[in-house]
Specification:
Structural class: alpha+beta
Number of strands: 19
Largest sheet: 6 strands, antiparallel, barrel
Radius of gyration: 43 Å
Order of helices and strands: HHEEEEEEHHHHEEHEEHEEEEEEEEHHE
Number of helices: 10
Strand content: 25-35%
Oligomer: single chain
């Protein structure tokens, strides 16, 4: 009986206790909820930090610009040089970018059947050399030895030469020397001999070759270019008044495309200056004045000074022609480029526009920023000297300027001024 009583009492005691697993479930739910809250808060702070890393800005020495992207058409003083035999193909005498004087030969056209004549002359040269080699005892005169020495010295001098013009001239001198040597050798040969016959035949072919050659000379001094695209007369400094939005848009030119070398003509360029014509829609372009200097940033990132040489206002656009005297040679390969016009630039203490607050002082609006330092905040009056869409260049007011604006001596007593690397609020309001 006693044993049964103990068992019943134990069961009664166990029935009065709450299950342990129920307590654990509530604790887990509470912990999970707490973790979710913490994670949500952390996520919120991370997103807020990414969107707005800090609510302050460090004042720095900087530069701001007012600039405008544009497409420009290159205009140059250029004279095209083209002869009658352009269909025969051409040989460059002067290289691209080489400066020449007036009446100096710049290129020539092949003569009719030139390749065939050259091959015949080359074959005859080989036969003449063989004939001379077989009769060296006949050609030991001092004149022959002098020519051979000249040929050897000229060949030796070309070992370390990379200039194509120098190589071409030396090659021509060597060829002339070989021809002279052959003619002297012919004089030593009896009339009707095999060598004499070869030399006479070579002379005949050489006359035919030279008779058809057309040398083209520079009509003016300047720089040689073979990048002829057919727009030399259309885009000319002599007719800016013909430039309109419609005529420029109709030109079939790709922006940034390199002008291909011509195989029929060349041209002489004034490499001291060139012009860029562009179509603009900005207020700065509408208000531009002749003779004003503006900087431009070219595709190679070079910033050069230019002057406004021509302005034409249309209903919805302004045509500007800019003159520049730097980087002219770098633009020879192009007819149409993308570039930036820098209307103005200004240096000084640089702050975001949003960090500038405004207050009324009488009928004047005074700008200020809020500096924060060691937990304290100070209002600092500033004057904006230049501003673009995002940033301003600012300066401190002098006491005299603030008094003139209407502030009392008491108001400006102990005032703070803005210095580099001060921390200011991005949103002073």
């Amino acid at each position: 009986m006693e044993k049964k009583h103990k068992i019943a009492k134990k069961k009664q005691k166990m029935a009065g206790q709450k299950p342990i697993y129920k307590l654990n479930k509530k604790a887990i739910t509470a912990a999970s909820l707490l973790i979710l809250i913490v994670l949500g808060y952390c996520l919120y702070k991370v997103v807020a930090l990414v969107q707005n890393p800090t609510n302050t800005f460090s004042v720095e020495q900087g530069k701001i610009y007012q600039e405008e992207a544009a497409i420009g058409y290159i205009i140059r003083e250029e004279t095209v040089v083209k002869g009658n035999n352009y269909k025969n193909g051409m040989v460059q005498i002067k290289t691209e970018g080489e400066r020449v004087a007036k009446n100096e030969a710049i290129f020539r056209y092949y003569s009719s059947g030139e390749e065939s004549l050259k091959k015949k002359i080359a074959d005859l040269d080989s036969k003449i050399d063989e004939a001379i080699a077989g009769k060296k005892e006949l050609f030991t005169g001092s004149d022959i030895r002098a020519i051979e020495k000249q040929i050897e010295e000229k060949i030796t001098s070309l070992v370390n030469v990379n200039n194509m013009q120098t190589i071409r001239e030396a090659k021509k001198e060597i060829s002339n020397s070989i021809t002279k040597k052959a003619k002297i050798a012919g004089d030593y040969s009896p009339a009707g001999s095999y060598l004499k016959k070869l030399i006479d035949e070579r002379s005949k072919y050489e006359k035919q070759l030279n008779a058809g050659v057309e040398d083209l000379k520079a009509p003016i001094s300047g720089v040689v270019s073979y990048k002829v695209d057919g727009y030399e007369e259309i885009l000319s400094p002599s007719n800016f008044s013909n430039l309109t939005k419609e005529t420029l848009k109709k030109l079939n030119i790709k922006t940034g495309q390199v002008v291909a070398d011509s195989t029929e003509s060349g041209k002489i360029i004034n490499n001291f200056q060139c012009y860029i014509a562009c179509i603009l829609n900005s207020e700065q372009a509408k208000e531009a004045k002749l003779g004003t200097n503006v900087k431009i940033r070219l595709p190679n990132n070079a910033e050069v000074l230019s002057s406004i040489e021509y302005i034409s206002h249309e209903d919805d656009a302004t045509i500007l022609v800019l003159k520049l005297s730097e980087q002219v040679q770098e633009l020879v390969s192009y007819r149409k480029i993308s570039f930036d016009i820098i209307w103005w630039s200004h240096s000084g203490k640089k702050v975001p526009n949003g960090a500038i607050g405004r207050e009324q002082k009488g009928d004047k609006e005074i700008c200020y920023v809020i500096r924060t330092r060691a937990g304290y905040q100070d209002k600092i009056w500033i004057k904006v000297t230049k501003q673009n869409e995002r940033y301003s260049i600012v300066e401190n007011y002098s006491n005299a300027e603030l008094i003139e604006l209407g502030y009392s001596t008491e108001e400006i007593k102990g005032r703070k001024t803005l210095t580099l690397y001060d921390e200011i609020l991005k949103k002073p309001e």
